[in-house]
Every structure is written in C-alpha cells, then in structure tokens.
Design a protein that fits this description.
Helix content: 25-40%
Number of strands: 12
Radius of gyration: 20 Å
C-alpha cells in the first residue's frame, strides 16, 4: 500500500529505532483515529524499537475508547499540564498524528513548535505544514491516519505483515480506521479494505471493537439523539440539515465528549438532505461538524464561514460568539443563511 519513497521509509525506520524518549501528539478533542494511531505507534515503539514512548493530548479522549487501555501511555494536558509539557520538552523525537499543523493541538501548540526534537508528521488531511517538520508522510486519498500508519509500519524493514505487529498494535489501528470511515460508510478506498482484511487475518477481533465503539453508550445518548432529530433538526429547501446543540441541551442530557459522535451523519440518511451540519456549544464558540454527499464540497463551506476545513465530504470548524454572531441564540439563523447561499453558488462570506 505504501507509495512513499524508499529513502523516506528508511529514514523513518532509522528515526523510530534511535535513542531517547519519544513524544506523540494528536489534535484537540481526540477521536478514534487520533487515539488509535497514537496508541498503535506508542506500542510499536515500545515493543519493536525499545523506545520510551508517550502520548500527549490537549483534552481527554472519549470513554468509548477506554477499551484500548491507552491510559498508561497518555498525559492529558487538561489534567496534567506540567507532565505533558515536560514530555514534549524532553523528547528527542516528536511525532504528530492526525493533524496537519501544530495549532490543531490546542494549548500544546506552542510547546510542540518550540521543541528541539526531530519532528515527524503523519496525517491524511489537506494542506500539511511541511516546513515545520523534518519528515512528512501526508496522503489524502486514504481513509484515516490509522490506515496511513499501517501502510508505513508494514513497509518498515523487519516488519513482515500485520501479524508481526501484534494485537496490541493492530487493534487500535482497526479501531481508528473503523471510526474515521463511520464503520465503512465513507472515505473507503481499495487499500482500506485490504488493510481490514489483513488485520482480520492477523486475528483482530472486529466484533469486540464494534461492541465497544457502538453498543456501549449510556442511555442519555440515545435520548439526546431522538431529541435532536425530532426537535432540533431543521432542513432547508436546498437540502441542508442543521442541528444546533446549545449548552442547555448538552447539560440536559449530561453529554460528554464523544457521546455525540455520529450525530452529524444521521440526517444524510434522508434522500433530500445533501449536507448535514451539527453545532455543539463550547466556551465562546460552537464546534461545527459538516458532512455532505460527494457532489457537495463541505470543506469549502467550512473554510468560508467556520474558520475550518478538512476533507470534501467531512469537515469541521468553529462559530464564535461574540464575533461571528452576537450570541448563541443566533447560531441557527446564521448557519441556515450561510448554507443556503453556499448551495445556491454564492460566496457566503458576509452575513
């Protein structure tokens, strides 16, 4: 599956098998692909390279990923800020996964940028900040960072196949690929199915992964989902579904990070919906998630109106208040208006 130059693979192998501690960083609000790839790489470095590898995150991963047993590997900057920064400062090798630039790491971005370590980027998003890294592996025609990492690891000298990686590496790789494809519903390439087949042949228990990811939620998530679809979802004449979850809604259902995973995809099951937009209130802004059918470039709307970007059919951004809007109550009108103009072919930069 690897399409990278042999010289880059050999350099990667040399860096992974070097000396000194390794720090692995991922984006804010880490999802299955971020934690899956980071956990897999940390375990590979420990078991195959004899390296002291740790992961730093800006905020805690969702509880649905607890089955990966990543806790011993992770320093959470929201709870252990000093430890996280010390790990970055002491690293001889810094590897950033599932983010195209340092600022995607939130509060950890300055420490990552200032690190004197050799820096590697492994990512599948658009527009990687190549100038900030010593070695970059970037592909967008791939399902996930986990798939990209799998391709790299199985290209390294001495790694024969998936089975030689071991279940402690293969299971988080399958997990991240599964979540980033929405369980093979989008962003699936021939290489994605090859990876899945090889991991299954190596003994990965996919049924157990699916049980943890999709059938271990709390009751409140299902009730929140029903409320969003019955009371909050609005659909424009242009075929754009918008769901705005304000602070009151999040508190009412006691929703935690990760418990709204997949909500944004639900409206796309309707024939008339061409794009779905989900907003979740945070401190001073809404997190914006966009999903679309292949004929609609969700990333263009994310860039034009939500300070964001991403893949064509799966993007994200933010809507600030005050700033973009005066207060949270205006979010729905702003998004509906921006989306309508975008779908009509207008540039919705001025509301």
């Amino acid at each position: 599956m690897s399409s990278f130059a042999e010289s880059d693979i050999l350099r990667l192998d040399s860096l992974l098998r070097g000396q000194g501690p390794v720090c692995i960083a991922v984006h804010i609000h880490p999802d299955g692909d971020a934690i899956g790839s980071a956990t897999a790489l940390a375990r590979f470095l420990r078991s195959h390279c004899g390296r002291d590898a740790r992961i730093v995150v800006n905020d805690p991963p969702p509880e649905t990923l607890d089955f990966l047993s990543w806790e011993e590997l992770v320093a959470d900057a929201s709870r252990q800020p000093q430890e996280a920064r010390e790990l970055i400062a002491s690293a001889s090798l810094l590897i950033c996964l599932d983010m195209n630039e340092f600022k995607r790491a939130g509060s950890l971005a300055p420490a990552l940028a200032d690190s004197g370590a050799t820096k590697i980027l492994i990512d599948h998003h658009l527009d990687p900040d190549r100038a900030s890294f010593d070695l970059v592996f970037s592909r967008t025609d791939i399902s996930s960072t986990c798939e990209l990492l799998y391709s790299l690891l199985t290209s390294l000298p001495g790694v024969k196949d998936a089975a030689s990686l071991g279940p402690e590496v293969c299971t988080p790789l399958m997990t991240g690929m599964t979540t980033d494809t929405n369980n093979f519903a989008n962003s699936v390439f021939p290489s994605t199915l090859v990876m899945a087949s090889e991991l299954l042949a190596a003994g990965v228990d996919r049924d157990a992964i699916l049980l943890h990811l999709y059938n271990s939620y709390r009751e409140n998530r299902l009730r929140a989902m029903g409320y969003c679809l019955s009371d909050l979802m609005k659909i424009s004449p242009e075929g754009v579904a918008v769901i705005v979850m304000d602070g009151g809604t999040l508190r009412r259902f006691d929703l935690q990070d990760g418990e709204t995973e997949g909500f944004v995809n639900l409206p796309l099951s309707l024939a008339k919906v061409r794009m779905s937009i989900l907003l979740k209130e945070d401190e001073g802004f809404f997190r914006v998630s966009l999903r679309s059918r292949p004929d609609v470039a969700a990333n263009e709307l994310a860039s034009a109106c939500f300070h964001g970007g991403g893949h064509r059919c799966a993007s994200g951004g933010r809507l600030y208040f005050p700033g973009d809007i005066a207060d949270p109550s205006l979010a729905q009108d702003y998004v509906m208006n921006a989306a309508a103009r975008f779908m009509r072919g207008e540039m919705p930069l001025e509301q």
